[in-house]
Amino acid sequence: MNELTIAGIRRGSRYSPNHVGNDAAIFQLTAKALRKRGCIVNEYSETDLRCNEIKENFIFNMVRDWESVYKLQKYENEGKAVINSAYGIESCTREKMTRLLLQNDIPHPQSLIVRTADDPAPAFQGVAFHNCWIKRGDFHAIHREDVTYVRNREEAQSILEEFAARGIDVAVINEHLTGDLVKFYGVTGGSFFYWFYPADHNHSKFGLEQINGNAKGIPFDEARLHCLCNKAANVLNIHVYGGDCIVSDDDGITRIIDFNDWPSFAPCREEAAPHIAERIYSLISESCKKEQRILV
After folding, report:
1. N or C: which end of the chain has fewer CB within 10 A?
2. What number of other Cβ atoms are within 10 A of residue 295's Cβ?
3. Dist CA 253 CA 230 (whole Å)
4. Is the Cβ–Cβ distance between 170 and 137 less than 8 Å?
């Protein structure tokens, strides 16, 4: 597979809130690692993808714009290898992610999915929580207001009305979990897995980590968390991932509260980039072998 030519598509800056530099850095390090393997990497922006045709048959990407996602899905349908899959990127949007994790028994907060224009009172009947998180269901968080902590159902009603006024039709309501907030990064198919307490690294996108406060160091099984995250990645159909979980101070159970396609890997990008490149290369190799079998 010498002189393998791969297209790399950067994330648009609008979809890197407070992390434009970090997202650009992990992309460049991954491209550099692929070039070290002898690959030719042609770099494109999301604007390039939307306005032009990508000729390469192998694509790695960090896209988030819906038009970009749909175009990559079309390429996948035509047989191009796309990593992360654009279908996986879509699965990581909040409503779909919540449904898929719960349907596949991935430990997750008790959750409701509601239409923002409806009265949420009937949905709240029969649930035991009051403190909760209201999150836009149609997409990833772009603005601070897309994820809001509320302390009672009256506040929840107010936030849902604000979402409706902003044109957000569906919201996910997650039970607030107490315990240690843990952030993680991983790559399927190998050993790379990195976790940390955000407060220890002053790592935050919108400052919401302060709600849970400083970690207490509640014990948890790192290997088990790694397996759980790889299972979630498989369910969501992505290979380069990151997210957040809560280690409960009540029962010690680790529950995933967020899962993202290709985050910034900011605290560990130098270590992570070669693993990401290796996974891209191996998936492309598998795609080539599969294509050869079909031709035979």
Report:
1. C
2. 6
3. 17
4. yes
